[in-house]
Amino acid sequence: MDIRVHDDVGAFAALAGPLLDADPLRHNVALTVLDTLCRVGEPAAALLTVHEAGEVVGAALRTPSRSVVVSAVPPSYAGSVAAVLAEADPGLPGVTGPTTEAEAFAAAHAARTGARVEVDVRMRLFALGTFVAPVGVPGAARRADDSDLDVLEMWRSDFAEEVHHGWIDPLTPRELAARSLRLGSGELLWEIDGVPVAQASARCPVAGMSRIGPVYTPPEHRRHGYAAAVAAAATQWALDAGAERVLLFADLANATTTALYPRIGYRPVHDALELRFCS
User: Fold this and answer.
1) Against a cut of 0.85, is the pTM above it?
2) What is the per-residue DSSP string for the chain?
3) pLDDT score of 41
């Protein structure tokens, strides 16, 4: 086995891309992160591939201040990858991925470094089956633009506070929203009489896949069907943009969203974790 640490995103993409493309549902986060790195040109915090008998059999990547994505690190390689990352990326804040891979890597990292592992978010990945757009919800969707940055900024911050108990991205909420618009993502607002009441984002298709999120409704506008309506609008945008598969994550601690998405045609794929490393 050979583990290689990369400092060039293009070289990493050439090696890891085929592995990730082979299972875009499982590797959806890695694929969208890699696509953003390639398109925006921002530096990565860690890029790593695992080679066995001349084949790429594993890959991990991380952007600054974010968790390492290990969907493509089989549990049997977790110890070896954790050892290399402990040297190459000593500031590793956490890990994210499907439950099996995330737990295996976290256990290996904790055994090597003595870090304490805490659960940040337990999630379920859903994939669109038969799309069922809700009917009878007042209002309509429209695509956001730069004039909507104030509300996009505020709602991204509020969403992060509810899910992560604070903002964790190195970019500000406004910078992240502006970058999403610049990259051509589907930023959808649901409006009542011209007033935004809910928001959903859909990423441009990568490997035939588009992921929805975040989906956010301010507390004062909840329980009116706006979240389902705007999520459905984002889903339709993704399909119109050419996505063959449309995915989204739901926080398992939020029973409302885990029940909502099946009503518009989403079906469970697998559970995933975001785990935080603490000293």
Assistant:
1) yes
2) -EEEE-S-HHHHHHHHHHHHHT-TTTTHHHHHHHHHHHHH-PPPSEEEEEEETTEEEEEEEE-TTSPEEEEES-GGGHHHHHHHHHHH-TT--EEEEEHHHHHHHHHHHHHHH--EEEEEEEEEEEEE-S-----S-SSEEEE--GGGHHHHHHHHHHHHHHHHSS---SS-HHHHHHHHHHTT-EEEEEEETTEEEEEEEEPPPBTTEEEEEEEE--GGG-SSSHHHHHHHHHHHHHHHTT-SEEEEEEETT-HHHHHHHHHTTEEEEEEEEEEEEE-
3) 80
